[in-house]
Structure formats: C-alpha cells, structure tokens
Amino acid sequence: MNLGIVIGVEKYKSDIFDDLVACKNDAKIFSDVLRNVKDFEEILYLNENESGTEIKKNIVDFVEKYKDQNVKELIFYFSGHGERFNDDFFYLPSDFDRKKRETTGLRNSELDEWIKTISPKLCVKIVDACFSGTQYIKSESSQEMDLKKSANKYGLNDIYFWFSSRENEVSYAGSEFSRFTESILTSLLDKSGEVRYREVMDAVADDFSNAGSSKPIF
User: Beta-strand (E) ranges in the chain?
Assistant: First the structure.
C-alpha cells in the first residue's frame, strides 16, 4: 500500500516568522494531485495551522495505525518555515517558539523514527520551505547532510530528498503557490500513465535552470 503525509502551515503566531499565504494552497493542491495520480490507502492531511503538539499526535496515531502493514511507499510533503538547530532540522508548526522548540517544533530525526515504525520500502520527502524573517539552512553541507544522516540512522535507505533551494537562497512563492511546488505539479500536466520520480526531478531542474532562480536539491 501507499501512504502520504501532507503538511501546510500558513499562519505563524510568533512575530519572528511571516505568514506564508501560498503554503496552504501548496498543501491543498499537492494532496489533491497525489490522490489523482496514485492509489493511496490514506493521506494524513494537516493544513489548518495545527500546533506542534497536534501535528506530532496525528503523525504518531497515523504510523501506529499502519505499523504492521506492508507499506510500499510513503510520501512526506511539507510547505512552511523550517530551521536547523545543531545537527537536526526542524519543521515549524504555526505555534513554533524557539524557547520551546522540542514541544512546538517537529524534529526531522523524530519524524524519521516514526517513519521507521512502518518501514516503507520507499520514502520520498519533499520540503518546500519558504521563509522570511528566519534563517533556513538549505545546503548540502548542512540540511541535506543532516537529513541523510538521520535517514541512515533509522534504516531508511531507499529515500528521495527534494528541497526547494540551496544555502542562503530564498524559496520563492507567487500569489497562489510556492514556485517549487508549482513546478513539480506543472511537470505532470503533459504526462500520462506511470511517471518515474526521476522524470519529475529532471523536469523541475530544467524549469529552475531556465528561470534563473533558486536551485533545488534532489
């Protein structure tokens, strides 16, 4: 079976982080497209600015439900703010507070530990982390290395990482959608039948190369 986790965060309680209007739309359309292009047993959809506690509880309940099942593929998608602390990456829910990062944030290593519970044969992580008013590290020497190290630690060997941009590059968003998510979904418009991830990755890489904007990492 195939499973999905889709999270979008639009509004942030802290004045440190700007609201991200496009991220709510990103998660909505990404979830809709997933349901149309592949057969999913269930997609955990969190897109109402849930708190860190709510997001983590929902993920824990979700993986507990499928921990004894034969999971072929798990897709994890996140659109919102993100930060890196020490040697771990945090996905930032709407109530994220740097003074309470463990209770209000979602550690990537914690997420990997939960994913390991269901042992998917393939895991795909797509991170479209638009940011403003915060430092979001997106380089091969920091974020990518941290996520790979965590994946290896928890035995997630067959995994794709898709990041919206590199170190010190802004992840751009239009009035409706984030640029990276829009590019991924647009690449599917002229395709029919089974589509390989490699095809989508190549199309997005070409799109960003021609646009002269940020450079995604795959």
Answer: 2-8, 42-46, 73-79, 82-85, 88-91, 106-107, 122-128, 159-163
- β-strand 73-79 against 82-85: which pairing, if any? unpaired
pTM (2 d.p.): 0.83
Angle, helix 108-118 to helix 145-153, in steps of 10 degrees = 40
Q: Are 123 and 74 in contact (CB under 8 A)?
A: yes
Q: What is the dihedral of CA 60, 62, 64, 65, to 10 degrees?
A: 160
β-sheet with 106-107: strand ranges across? 82-85, 88-91, 106-107
Q: Packing angle between helix 197-211 and helix 179-186, nearest 10 degrees?
A: 130
Q: 112 and 33 in contact (C-beta within 8 Å)?
A: no
91 vs 156: CA distance, rounded Å: 19
Q: What is the pLDDT of residues 13-65, one digit of tens each?
A: 988 888 888 889 999 999 998 888 888 999 999 999 999 999 999 999 999 99
Under 8 Å between Cβ of 121 and 3: no
As given in the structure block, the two tokens for residue 2 are: 């195939």
